[in-house]
């Protein structure tokens, strides 16, 4: 995995402005893994993708994560402050990027049902952007490779809710970072709940905030010294800050 330079971050921000969450995730991965093919990156499972993004975020902005969440019980804002290592340990292994299109079929046996499925990928999520209303059905059709009830073939759309719930649970077991959840407790009303952590949205919002600040810094330094953007971005953050202080007279 390659760490981001200041120029890389601005490029990711610019290209990801109008992209869907799935497209933004792949854009981040392509910048971090330049030797991997776009197709192999798109074939990563969602959990593999999000593990890569957690590690990439740690390399870019550090391991500490902060934010706020609305309590479902009383509506108060609950402050979040946690570490990436609380979610993904240092020993968590990054995935390989095979060029072949081999599918890892996983069997699932339930009372009266036999299924074979694969884990959802970024390519699946990208295709769902075209038809959000049918997202659940489309994802089942893509990931359920075969299904039978009492020996009779069944279509993915025919799976009852309890089978779909068991399938989702098994997917989460097979792909540990598929649904990254945070256990939260409201200090005001003591309500406890779990919240899914969206690393794609979180990381891109940080990049957007960083890019806005960096553009202002580049503008000030270029206006004061006539330097090129590339030269300013190539500076360390410490040097840029010292020059900004000189401009301000502090």
Account of the 3D structure:
With 250 residues, the protein is of the alpha+beta class. It folds into two domains: 6-95 and 182-216, no CATH class; 106-174, no CATH class. 49% of the residues lie in helices and 17% in strands. The strands form three sheets. Strands 3-4-5-6 form a four-stranded antiparallel β-sheet. It has a two-stranded antiparallel sheet with strand order 1-2. The two termini are 39 Å apart.
What attributes characterize this protein structure?
49% helix; alpha+beta; 4-stranded antiparallel β-sheet; 250 residues; 2 domains
Helical content band = 40-55%
The largest sheet has its strands arranged as: 3-4-5-6
* Uncertain ranges: none
Q: How can the largest sheet be summarized?
A: 4 strands, antiparallel
Q: What is the mean pLDDT? A: 92
Global geometry? globular
Secondary structure tally: strands: 8
Q: Beta fraction of the residues?
A: 15-25%
User: How many domains in all?
Assistant: 2
Distance between the termini: 39 Å
The tally of helices reads 11
Radius of gyration: 22 Å
Q: What is the N-to-C order of secondary-structure elements (H for helix, E for strand)?
A: HHHHEEHEEHHEEHEEHHH
Helix/strand/pairing class, anyone?
Answer: alpha+beta
